Amino acid sequence: MVTVVLKFLGTQICQTHTLRQAQLLRPRMLRWVSTLDYSMDQGQKEKQLLHGMLQKKKEHFKESGQILLKDIKETRDKVKEKMEEIIERENVLTIPNLLCISRIVMSPFLGYFILQSEYHLALGLFVFAGVSDLLDGWIARNFESQASKIGSFLDPMADKVLIATLFGALTFMDLIPGRFLGDKFTLFFIAGTIISALLFVAVYLTGAIITRDLLLVAAAFCVRYKSLPPPVSTLHSNKIAVV
What we know:
It catalyses: a CDP-1,2-diacyl-sn-glycerol + a 1,2-diacyl-sn-glycero-3-phospho-(1'-sn-glycerol) = a cardiolipin + CMP + H(+). Its main location: membrane. Helices cover 78% and strands 5% of the residues. The chain has 243 residues and is mainly α. It has two domains: 43 residues; 140 residues. The strands form two sheets. It has a two-stranded antiparallel ribbon. It has a two-stranded antiparallel ribbon with strand order 2-3. α2 runs antiparallel to α3 and α2 packs parallel to α4. The longest helix is centred in the first third of the chain and has 89 residues. The N and C termini lie far apart (103 Å).
């Protein structure tokens, strides 16, 4: 009986001690729980802030990538356009160019046949030259791959060589009058000699035609030279390299 009473008292004492300890620890536990909640809230806020920063960085990189792709595309288009211009400029072996070259090559033969009084052969060459002149222009206009920069120069050059040879040979054979005189002398203004004012001169038809062709060729050279892009200087190249 005494043992049972002692056990009961011991149990009560332990429960009382445990309850007292729990009451003492309760404020500490509450503070610890509140601190833990605050830490979790702070961690959640930091996590959200970090997520927002990462999202902004991602959007920034995405925009930068789009801008870079756009720049690359524009550069590629410019390079492609430049390459097409270079290919067009260097496209020499085309049918129109070969026809122009053939007219230039046949011009001496045309003059030779006229000097040898082979007028049928000369007429045949002249007809072929006229047909080839029409044909090369039609091909160059209707077929883009056959157009070239040098062709725009060769075509008038071939015409000038052919006409100059034809008139020179005909004049040598006295088939064209050396002088072209009207009832009155033709009035010419001599370019570059303004101090001599107006002069009355006899005009040589063949010389006038050949001179005109030479002036046209010289003018074509000048226009072509002015249309070329300016040469790239060393300073400009260094700037590009630095960029």
